[in-house]
Amino acid sequence: VAANPDLGLHLGVVPLGIAFSFCVGWTPSHFIGGLKIQGNSTVVNDVRPMLLQQLEAQGMDPGMWQLPLFCCDELQGESALPVFTSRTTLVEAWVASGRTRETVPDCSVLDLRLLVQQMQTDIFAWHTVQFVAASAAVEAVREAKAKAKVATKDEPPPLEGASDPADEPPPLEGGINWQLVNSSESAPPLECGDGSGEALPSVAE
């Protein structure tokens, strides 16, 4: 977008849940064509065979896209299960918790569709799931909010008592909630196997 300003394009931001709902057809869309959630192409291509195997084992349609999610038992807490949209972000959280980059364990990987399916069951306290986005994505959202605030500075002020999302306190460095990664309590591991009772294979960076 920034490299081609004359095209009149702009970067929009939408919550992952809403994007997923559109992409799988739960919410009608007027868009003509296929909608997909695009992860980092290098990472997606690297783990796609594993993700397709997961979905096939559960009898699920893999669709036209896959989105890998990353988690590890050591970063789980009693009241929080952080799920990372990239392994790089998981490593950032690991280091932020006071541990070294060299000790980062292999992490479990599962497709977003599989996680959503499991979250519709009662096998785990899913309200503890917290998605942790890449720090670059968090910064992009902050910049977009700041630009939108400047662009609308001539509009009438908001109603008294209304809050402006752009005025919310910025996330902690790297977009990581330190409370998630500093917890010493352990929660049950995320069940993301292929139905055979065996854990999913781990993937290293």
TrEMBL record:
Residues 147-156 have a biased composition (Basic and acidic residues). Residues 147-205 are annotated as: Disordered. This is Uncharacterized protein.
